[in-house]
TrEMBL record:
NAD in keyword set: no
GO cellular component, one term: plasma membrane
Membrane-related topology note: Multi-pass membrane protein
Family according to the record: Belongs to the cation transport ATPase (P-type) (TC 3.A.3) family. Type IIB subfamily.
A matching Pfam family: CaATP_NAI
Protein name: Calcium-transporting ATPase
Function description: Catalyzes the hydrolysis of ATP coupled with the transport of calcium.
Transmembrane segments: 247-272, 284-303, 434-458, 485-514, 910-930, 942-961, 982-1003, 1059-1079, 1091-1112
Species annotation: Nepenthes gracilis (Slender pitcher plant)
PANTHER family found in the cross-reference section: CALCIUM-TRANSPORTING ATPASE 9, PLASMA MEMBRANE-TYPE (PTHR24093:SF520), CATION TRANSPORTING ATPASE (PTHR24093)
Top-level EC class: translocase
Lineage: Eukaryota, Viridiplantae, Streptophyta, Embryophyta, Tracheophyta
Location in or out of the cell: Membrane
Family matches, as InterPro entries: ATPase_P-typ_cation-transptr_C, ATPase_P-typ_cation-transptr_N, ATPase_P-typ_cyto_dom_N, ATPase_P-typ_P_site, ATPase_P-typ_TM_dom_sf, ATPase_P-typ_transduc_dom_A_sf, ATPase_P-type_domA, Ca_ATPase_N_dom
Keywords: ATP-binding, Calcium, Calcium transport, Calmodulin-binding, Ion transport, Magnesium, Membrane, Metal-binding, Nucleotide-binding, Translocase, Transmembrane, Transmembrane helix, Transport
Length: 1146
């Protein structure tokens, strides 16, 4: 048990108790994360008394944001009295971590050191391993320097563990291929151009690997097996998870349990020595068995929890990507990549293995994950080597896989460092503060009880069950005295076990593990634990349109060739030859998708993004021969799609040496670049007088919720094309002026079924849904009306509906004002989304934002909760996000909100239940110890109560499924206290009832008709057993009350949680067994049916009592604020502030 770095004990207690008490008053998320200096300078500004005007004035008069506090005028250490959160001798509230998402290592280390912990290995198991995190970069550098040696050592270790079998040679056989594994691995690792040339360059290497650079490998099962046998699989040995015995050992590391074990052994020894083996082993043996029960139940619970986290981590690492096999694009797991595969790369992808670039355009790789340098490296024929684990920052291309698994530096890195799943959550940190505060109170009580019991024992005031005095000076032998003292110490230590709610912070992990597993079924993969609970506080969701609110099944439903509408849109007979030829040329070449024959030889298949697939499918209807068109053109340069410019372009040279530049993109933006258009009769005409017509066509399409895409081209003089050398072409900026418009299409992407209901559910829950899309403002408005984000056309006025460029042009102050009113933002860029998120966060909103592109990463990172798309999202977006929505559906986002609220609600249920037990047990033991010198609950009984309260209680209450009731109340506010007034009311009523009933039984129980009349010793045993039984049954019945803190009907939905019913049932059955059959071990006697009925009735009364209690109104002001008010900034403390302000002004 440790409270570190607190100086003198008494001062430490004051500081810690006052700061931790304030944890009751902080909201779920706290304020936005601040700088480390700001936290050190004015941590108090975020605490309970910050509601006052004094702190607001301080913020106005001092530049706290930049930590410019003048120490010569003001020093917090000189303030004579302290408020709950003020610095005192440099003290900072260690549990005030506003946002763990970007918390510094220093603040994370500080709260760990401040926590009162009985079992550090268990308490901090699921928090971030700071040493490991700090050493990760050093490990990466070492692998870069000594990759070959580390790989050899790893292979040797694996061979010794028989995890891989090499046969006679030290390496797998590569006889079927013309190159050895080590040669291939070292070529890429060392970027050895000489070795590449020796093997005939890229084409020669592809021949040795039996790969076609255009169509890839065959993909046959036998071929894949051969390649894995020869060059290894794209997996790496993971460090094995902890076994059950490790969790058993961790559960045993509790300091109080160790003390109890020592006391049990001593009691066992003295008992056997004094009474004999037959009777003397009961006291010590019963404590030992109770300890073993606690340890085993705790270990089993923790072990199952760890398995859930391991399964979720495997899901996170299982990236799905495309490969080209047998001329077709297939989606496979990253673990199924083999040497020889041809892998297409695009912006945001992770390079899945080591390889060599086959072809690419503007391909730029972020290698910081491996080199540690945040530098973008451009890849071309002069720098073709690609490293696994890096990210594609720009452009696209194809790569030939040459190294997989532990034959890559990324594989070695992953094999050498275990994935650290530990992470703090705001609720976890706050609960550690609460547990520390309660623990200090409990420790004080236990010491008081110990002192009173020892004093009474040695003064002869403590009596046995038969009424005789336990200790008589000069008569009691040493063995009996020591045994008596051991019994008293055991009781005191057991009170500490019950009083320190060790399971309180761990309940967060338990409910998060349960929620994460269930959220997977609801198509949400949690990457950061804190996002689960923060999502419950979300006040606004900034959602993409395409694929999230809409179904992402796009089809071309309207098409215009020049000014003429094609009906049906896929009829090529309505266009003349030249226009049709140019349009097909632009569709086939200016794309990142592809068209290929199905495996069964039937209809053609189309791959690519949903928009690309819709356009390519339309091109096929127009008679496009995809491969033929592409083979007749040489691509000179590509300008990839840019979310700022909203268009992509390609320069190509035809067989007759003509050069065409094709552009495709947002219709109104492409139209603005056009000076001519080609009509359906293939006549070239000026667009000057027709622009209004085309704008009308675009607006008409947009009003029908269609995505408008325009096609344009420009004939280009080949003499003006830069030198065909690759480096000069790479710098070429494609001309985009004086374009010729070829056509405009309207692509329908219908709203997802159920999205309107999901939006309404959010609105009812107090969560505002905002649409942020790159589409035309009219299209965005139309979809918003369809989805229910906009109620009517009357709402569609600025700034409710706004364009990204308009919002971007506002000042920072105006953006903060306007952001609150924005519902739809059209034609927005990723930077606009980031600005909106920042403005909303500054305004106090808890913001969830969805994103799928690489450029969305800053907004995903900046938001309180970043939600990336699992289907269309890039790997960069996924890594920057907190939760991955696996089906890209907005309804799944709403389910995440529901689960987030459930996490917070379940923790509150458990807190209410546990604190009721804490208060009742402590008060009963203290009053009984002071008044009579004995306590009614023995060590074994208290250990059983602790098991009910901690592990079993957490399992029962922290795994309650979410209910519809959660979505009919406002989000949990930033400043909302952890223990609400409703919880305080319920807690006080139940605890008061239990204390009164049990104290009455303890002091007057002998007078009950079913107890009175027996011998004094039997009466004492019956009375103490009744107290114990009534206490446990009160907890069992109170578990039902804790399910619904704010509802009268506590049984609603109880049958939908079999785990809760099972645990309650098991607890009740075990209690019966303890009373009726284990009396020797638990110091109880059998109770008649009358006393069982009394116990049941006393427990049952808690139900109507709770129902009546819920009719009592509670004040709006949190109780914690009322209690802490006397300790807040007093007039004495305010004087130095006022003097300082005066000095600063002068």
């Amino acid at each position: 048990m440790c409270v570190q770095n607190f100086g003198q004990p008494f001062t430490a207690l004051i500081r810690l108790a006052s700061s931790v008490a304030n944890c009751f008053n902080r909201g779920t998320c706290g304020d936005r994360a601040t700088t480390h200096d700001e936290q050190h300078s004015f941590q108090h500004s975020k605490c309970s008394f910050s509601q006052g005007k004094s702190v607001a004035l301080l913020r106005q008069n001092w530049d706290v944001r930049n930590s410019r506090v003048y120490p010569q005028f003001f020093d917090l250490t000189t303030v004579p009295s302290i408020s709950p959160c003020l610095h005192y001798d440099g003290f900072v509230d260690p549990f005030d971590i506003a946002n763990t998402k970007n918390a510094s290592f220093e603040s994370l280390r500080r709260w760990r050191q401040a926590a009162l912990v009985l079992n550090a290995s268990r308490r901090f198991r699921y928090t971030l391993d700071l040493k490991k995190a700090e050493g990760k970069e050093q490990r990466r550098r070492m692998i870069r320097s000594h990759a070959q040696v580390i790989r050899a050592a790893l292979l040797f270790k694996l061979a010794g563990q028989q995890e891989i079998v090499f046969g006679a040679s030290a390496l797998p056989s590569t006889d079927d291929y013309g190159i050895e594994l080590e040669q291939l691995a070292s070529m890429t690792r060392d970027r050895d151009f000489f070795a590449l040339d020796q093997h005939g360059g890229l084409k020669g290497l592809a021949g040795l690997l039996k790969t076609n650079l255009e169509t890839g490998i065959s993909g046959a099962d036998a071929d894949l097996v051969d390649r894995k046998n020869a060059f290894g699989s794209n997996t790496y040995p993971r460090k094995k998870g902890k076994g059950f015995f490790t969790f058993l050992w961790d559960a045993w590391q509790d300091l109080t349990l160790i003390i109890l074990a020592v006391a049990a052994i001593a009691s066992l020894a003295f008992g056997i020595k004094t009474v004999g083996l037959k009777e003397g082993w009961y006291d010590g043996g019963s404590i030992t068995l109770a300890l073993l029960l606690v340890i085993f139940v705790t270990a089993i619970s923790d072990y199952k929890q760890s398995l859930q986290f391991e399964n979720l981590n495997e899901e996170k690492q299982n990236i799905q990507l495309e490969v080209i096999r047998d001329g077709r694009r297939e989606k496979i797991s990253i673990f199924d990549i083999v040497v020889g595969d041809v892998v297409p790369l695009k912006i945001g992808d992770q390079v899945p293995a080591d390889g060599i670039l086959i072809s690419g355009h503007s391909l730029a790789i972020d290698e910081s994950s491996m080199t540690g340098e945040s530098k973008i490296v451009h890849k071309d024929k002069k720098a073709p080597f690609l490293m696994a684990g890096c990210k594609v920052a720009d452009g696209f291309g194809n790569m030939l896989v040459t190294g997989v698994g532990i034959n890559t530096e990324w594989g070695l890195l992953m094999a050498s460092i275990s994935e650290d799943t530990g992470e703090e959550t705001p609720l976890q940190v706050r609960l550690n503060g609460v547990a520390t505060f309660i623990g200090i109170v409990g420790l004080s009580v236990a010491l008081s009880v110990l002192a009173v019991l020892l004093a009474r024992y040695f003064t002869g005031k403590t009596k046995n069950e038969d009424g005789s005095v336990q200790f008589v000076h000069g008569q009691t032998c040493i063995n009996e005295a020591v045994d008596g003292v051991i019994g008293i110490v055991t009781i005191a230590v057991t009170i500490v076990v019950v009083a320190v709610p060790e399971g309180l912070p761990l309940a967060v992990t338990l409910t998060l593990a349960y929620s994460m597993r269930k959220m997977m079924a609801d198509k949400a993969l949690v990457r950061r634990l804190s996002a689960c609970e923060t999502m419950g506080s979300a006040t606004t969701i900034c959602s993409d349109k395409t694929g999230t609110l809409t179904s992402n099944r796009m089809t071309v439903v309207e098409a215009y060739a020049g000014k003429n509408k094609l009906d049906p849109p896929g009829d090529p007979l309505q266009m003349q030859g030249e226009l049709l030829s140019l349009l097909i040329e632009g569709i086939a070449v200016n794309t990142t998708g592809s068209v290929f024959l199905a495996k069964d030889g039937g209809n053609v298949e189309v791959s690519g993004s949903p928009t690309e697939k819709a356009i390519l499918s339309w091109g096929v209807k127009l008679g496009m021969k995809f491969d033929t068109v592409r083979s007749e053109a040489i691509v000179l340069h590509v300008s990839p799609f840019n979310s700022e410019k909203k268009r992509c372009g390609v320069a190509l040279q035809l067989t007759n040496s003509d050069v065409h530049i094709h552009w495709k993109g947002a219709a109104e933006m492409v139209l603005a670049l056009c000076t001519h258009f080609i009509d359906s009769d293939s006549c070239l005409k000026s667009i000057e007088n027709e622009k209004s017509t085309f704008k009308g066509i675009i607006e008409d399409m947009a009003s029908k919720s269609l995505r408008c895409v325009a096609f344009a081209y420009k004939p280009y003089d080949k003499d003006n094309v830069p030198n065909t050398r690759e480096e000069e072409l790479a710098k070429w900026v494609l001309p985009e002026d004086s374009l010729v418009l070829l056509g405009i299409v309207g692509i329908k992407d219908p709203c997802r079924s159920g999205v309107k209901d999901a939006v309404k559910l959010c609105t009812d829950a107090g969560v505002k849904v905002r649409m942020v899309t790159g589409d035309n403002i009219q299209t965005a408005k139309s979809i918003a009306l369809e989805c229910g984000i906009l109620a009517s056309d009357a709402d569609a006025t600025e700034p409710t509906v706004i364009e990204g460029k308009t919002f971007r042009a506002l000042s920072e102050e105006d953006r903060e004002k306007v952001a609150k009113r924005i519902t739809v933002m059209g034609r927005s860029s990723p930077s606009d989304k980031l600005l909106l998120v920042q403005a909303l966060c500054k305004g106090g909103d808890v913001v969830a934002v969805t994103g799928d592109g690489t450029n969305d990463a800053p907004a995903l990172h900046e938001a309180d909760i970043g939600l990336s798309m699992g289907i269309e999202g890039t790997e960069v977006a996924k890594e920057s996000s907190d939760i991955i929505i696996l089906d890209d559906d907005f309804a799944s986002v709403v389910k995440v909100v529901r689960w987030g609220r459930s996490v917070y609600a379940n923790i509150q249920k458990f807190i209410q239940f546990q604190l009721t037990v804490n208060v009742a047990a402590l008060v009963i033991n203290v009053v009984a110890a002071i008044s009579s010198g004995n306590i009614p609950l023995t060590a074994v009984q208290l250990l059983w109560v602790n098991l009910i309260m901690d592990t079993l209680g957490a399992l029962a209450l922290a795994t309650e499924p979410p209910t519809d009731h959660l979505m009919h109340r406002a989000p949990v506010g930033r400043r909302e206290p952890l223990i609400t007034n409703i919880m305080w009311r319920n807690l006080i009523i139940q605890a008061l009832y239990q204390v009164i009933v049990l104290l009455v039984l303890n002091f007057q129980g002998r007078n009950l008709p079913f107890i009175k009349g027996h011998s004094w010793e039997q009466e004492t045993k019956l009375k103490n057993t009744l107290v114990f039984n009534a206490f446990v049954l009160c907890q069992i019945f109170n578990e039902f009350n804790a399910r619904k803190p704010d509802e009268i009907n506590v049984f609603k939905g109880v049958t939908k949680n079999p785990l809760f019913m099972g645990i309650v049932g098991i607890t009740a059955v075990l209690q019966i067994i303890i009373i009726e059959f284990l009396g020797k071990f638990t110091s109880t006697v059998k109770l008649g049916w009358q006393l069982w009925l009394v116990s049941m009735v006393l427990g049952l009364i808690s139900w109507p009592l709770a129902a009546v209690g819920k009719l009592i109104p509670v004040p709006q002001t949190p109780l914690s604020k009322v209690v802490l008010k006397p300790f807040q900034l007093s007039k004495v403390v305010l004087k130095p502030f006022q003097r300082c302000r005066t000095a600063c002004r002068t």
